[in-house]
Amino acid sequence: MASIAILCLLLLERFLASDMDSITEPVLNGLRVLEKTALRYSGVPNDLLKSPRSLSRFYLYTPERSSDGVKLYAEDPRTFRFFNPRLETKIIIHGFLDKVKIADWMHHMKDEFMLLDDFNVIIVDWSFGNFIPYSKAAANTERVGEEISLLLIILRDQYGARPEKFHLIGHSLGSHVAGYVGERVKGLKRITGLDPATYLFTTASPRAKLDRSDAQFVDVLHTDGGGRNWNE
């Protein structure tokens, strides 16, 4: 049965990566069936994404702890002891279906930053909220954005960090998570969107997706030449 769930996930990924203008209503109905089938056989509790607990986990890497990250807890100041407010802080946010423990790209990016200069790097794990159905994961981007915003406010108000030293990098749905953060924490230095998700976001209001007003500098990188242009 697990193979059925895997097949459904692969098909979902294929369609969700497509240009949604070419997907008809019957195909969308088929996607909904795939979502239900994958949930049924994946072994993941149906109410997982409805949990009131936080959807985000934060792991801090610094020049002193470049390979062994520290899990941050808002209520435990000891977990912030390696954070240096004088350094620029890079915040890496994954997208749909990704998991920090198995997605090497976030750790590779962190390592490259550490080779480039001294930074604080925070890897955000919101794998409690990015699972299927895609529509629920997309809706969770706002909640995760709120949780990251609270973290940045703590870093600003309690540890002396300045918004102009925050650079958020988001992939797929993570790009829009970063956009929500920019709505709440004004003056962010930079947001970089890596292949921002288009499905359910192309017609959304600027508040509900990454747009040029979310930071002092917003750049977007596309690697899918067949996708939709991002002109906002």
From TrEMBL:
Residues 1-17 form the signal peptide. SUPFAM superfamilies: alpha/beta-Hydrolases. InterPro entries: AB_hydrolase_fold, Lipase, TAG_lipase. Its main location: secreted. One of its GO terms (cellular component) is extracellular space. Pfam families: Lipase (PF00151). GO terms for molecular function: lipase activity. GO terms for biological process: lipid catabolic process. It comes from the Eukaryota. Residues 56-225 form the Lipase domain. PANTHER family: LIPASE, LIPASE DOMAIN-CONTAINING PROTEIN-RELATED. Belongs to the AB hydrolase superfamily. Lipase family. This is Inactive pancreatic lipase-related protein 1.
